[in-house]
Amino acid sequence: MEAYSYLDKPRSGLMNMAIDDAMLDFASEHNAVVLRLYRWAEPTLSLGYFQKIEERELHEASRSVELVRRATGGGAIVHDHDLTYSLAVPQVSSHVGAAPAVYSAVHSVMVEWLKELEFSAKQWHSIYDFSLPSVQRAESGKTEFLCFQRRSDGDVVVGEHKIMGSAQRRGKAALLQHGSLLLRSSKYAPELPGIGDLVRGNLEMLANGRLFAGEMLLRLERGIDALLRVRLKCGAFLADELQMPATDKMVKFDAPPWRFRA
User: Could you tell me the pTM of the whole model?
Assistant: First the structure.
């Protein structure tokens, strides 16, 4: 099974979603694992697949930014000062295992890396912490609008703050997983601190975004290699190869029935 990874340039929200959808097709058709790490050309709010458009009005700070809807579930994310990854895995692989294994592989290596950078990172588990307000809200039947105000087992946290989460979508023959690492707080979501806000001494580390992104990509590769027993290699050629199918798919992600579903 082939396996590719690459660091993409910042793109619009619609194009980012379309490329990820094209990756899902590529993984199915070529029996290939594809990992992409990217940023967003402008501040963008991505709704989870199951969220209703009316919920956007619940968050005043992000009302002015561009809106897209992900193919994956979970809560809304303000993409401003974050790094987003997408991973497409063909289901024909006997090494994929259950979906939680993919979460764990990614989040475990991120925790290890952040600890090396002197962040007190860990994976959150509900059985160990019932005190967080988000847990209490979940038990009362309420769900927070923003992804980073929710908690799911395996999320990456620094102290009480969630700084990375992931969500999945299963296609007919492949799995797509999205996730974002929150680097700094955004004026469009000022209530959410990023890792640079939590340990200010490490802000210099985040200044050169491309170097930091390159190291994050390397760490993600290690976790995926170990789980899937593959060897990810440079897939920079996919930036061009996925462009045409992604351009066609933008129509789907821009259509009102998709973006503005009630």
Answer: 0.90
Reading the block at residue 196, the tokens are 């640079």
Report pLDDT digits (tens) over 200-227: 655 566 656 778 899 999 999 999 999 9
Nearest to 192 by CA among 161, 225, 167: 161
Q: Where are the alpha helices (DSSP H) in 117-194?
A: 133-139
Could you tell me the sign of the dihedral formed by the alpha carbons of 234, 36, 66, 42, in that order?
Answer: negative
Digit-coded pLDDT (tens) for 133-155: 444 344 444 679 999 999 988 99
- Cα distance between residue 260 and residue 56, in whole Å: 10
Separation between Cα atoms, residue 20 and residue 250, nearest integer Å: 11
* Helix (H) / strand (E) containing 250: helix 243-254
3-state secondary structure of 103: helix
Tell me whether residue 31 is exposed, middle or buried, using C-beta atoms within 10 angstroms of its C-beta: 0 to 12, 13 to 18, 19 or more: middle
Other Cβ atoms closer than 10 A to 42: 12
**C-alpha dist (Å) from residue 97 to 105, 141, 175:** 11, 31, 11
147, 189, 213, 242: the catalytic one is 147
Among 161, 159, 177, 162, smallest CA distance to 105 is for 177
The CATH class for the domain spanning 2-259 reads: alpha beta
Q: How far apart are CA 57 and CA 22, in angstroms?
A: 30
Please indicate whether residue 234 is annotated as part of the active site. no
213: tokens are 């992104």
pLDDT digits (tens, 9 = 90+) for 49-86: 999 999 999 899 999 999 999 999 999 999 999 999 99
